[in-house]
Amino acid sequence: DKILSIVPPIAAFVAAGFEHCVANMFFIPMGLLIESDDAFVSAQGEAVPDLSTLTWDRFVTANLVPVTIGNIVGGAVMVGAIYWFVYLRNGDDVPAAPSLTSNDP
User: Fold this and answer.
1) DSSP letters spanning 10-30
2) CA-based, 20 to 30 A from 88: which of 24, 39, 59, 102?
3) CA end-to-end span of the chain, whole Å?
4) For 15-51, what is each residue's pLDDT tens digit?
5) How far is CA 20 from CA 13, 15, 57, 81, 90, in A?
6) Can you give the pLDDT at residue 64?
């Protein structure tokens, strides 16, 4: 049941084309490091893509910062919406914990 509750949201996230900042912190720097290795790129046997716009500066400013902000806002909104739906959607207040100083028998 844990797997069934985890896989659909992750699959939907990926299928929608969203990006995750932690994944980008691995894949894009790896691409930047491979970009400088002409032997590796040419050994792939395919046409070499134009990697001239792939730079550290563009990675941080055009990808990492916006994706991180989107992950924070999206996560906060989605988690907040799920908690609202599960616990407070009827407008009921959360019951208070019983008092330990009560004198009731």
Assistant:
1) HHHHHHTT---HHHHHHHHHH
2) 102
3) 43
4) 888 888 888 888 888 888 877 666 766 676 666 667 7
5) 9, 13, 18, 20, 33
6) 92
φ/ψ of 17, rounded to 5, equals 85, 15
- Residue 5 above 60 pLDDT? yes
Q: How far is CA 75 from CA 22, 28, 31, 69, in A?
A: 14, 22, 27, 10
Q: Where are the alpha helices (H) located in the chain, listed in sequence order?
A: 2-15, 21-35, 38-42, 56-58, 65-83
Q: Among positive and negative, which fits the CA dihedral 48, 53, 56, 59?
A: negative
CA distance 1 to 24: 29
pLDDT of 99 higher than 90:
no
Single-letter residue type at 81: A
Six-digit token string for 104? 């009731």
What are the residues whose beta carbons fall under 8 Å from the beta carbon of 63, sequence distance 6 or more?
19, 24, 28
Tokens of 96: 């208070």
